[in-house]
Amino acid sequence: CGATLLCRPQGMVTFLVGDNEERVEHVSKCALCVRSVFFRTMFGIGMKERDAAEVTVLETDLASFTALVRYLLTDQLDLGEGEGEQARRALVLRQLAHKYQVPRLELLCAQALQESVGPASAVPLLEAAHTTGDGRLLAHCRRYVADHAAEVRASGGVEQLRDMSVAKGLLGDALDQ
């Protein structure tokens, strides 16, 4: 494939994804190596995956991993259908992009997350940003909640709040206004 002298994997790989080992079949190892340092290392010299026909990926779901592979092969971002599903997929896909060292995809997912902040999604995204340490999304969601408090409350966003430290932060924001 010519990605590097150290990475010349041959053939295709099938990924067994999640606890149910759902299959993502016939993926070019070479194409993955060109787009991801992680895969370049995984399929490189001395690694057991280099000659493996199947690789198990446990930490994600089939739709999100398929979206990652599709992005690597086609440069097309698939966040699914519906506002809630798109935000959820963008969160998971951003984490996969980070793990598999695909910085452009990570940025595209971060942008999609910021664009998806609305009355019903602001609080869940705020909690997710807090959990994942995404300071930019956290600040964006906090500003959104402060500026659109009535809409967030009316959408049921406040009832979705589960993380006490996020609740304390929102209370502090409200008191500062």
Automatic annotation (TrEMBL):
<dbReference type="Pfam" id="PF00651">
    <property type="entry name" value="BTB"/>
</dbReference>
<dbReference type="InterPro" id="IPR000210">
    <property type="entry name" value="BTB/POZ_dom"/>
</dbReference>
<protein>
    <recommendedName>
        <fullName>BTB domain-containing protein</fullName>
    </recommendedName>
</protein>
<dbReference type="InterPro" id="IPR011333">
    <property type="entry name" value="SKP1/BTB/POZ_sf"/>
</dbReference>
<feature type="domain" description="BTB">
    <location>
        <begin position="11"/>
        <end position="81"/>
    </location>
</feature>
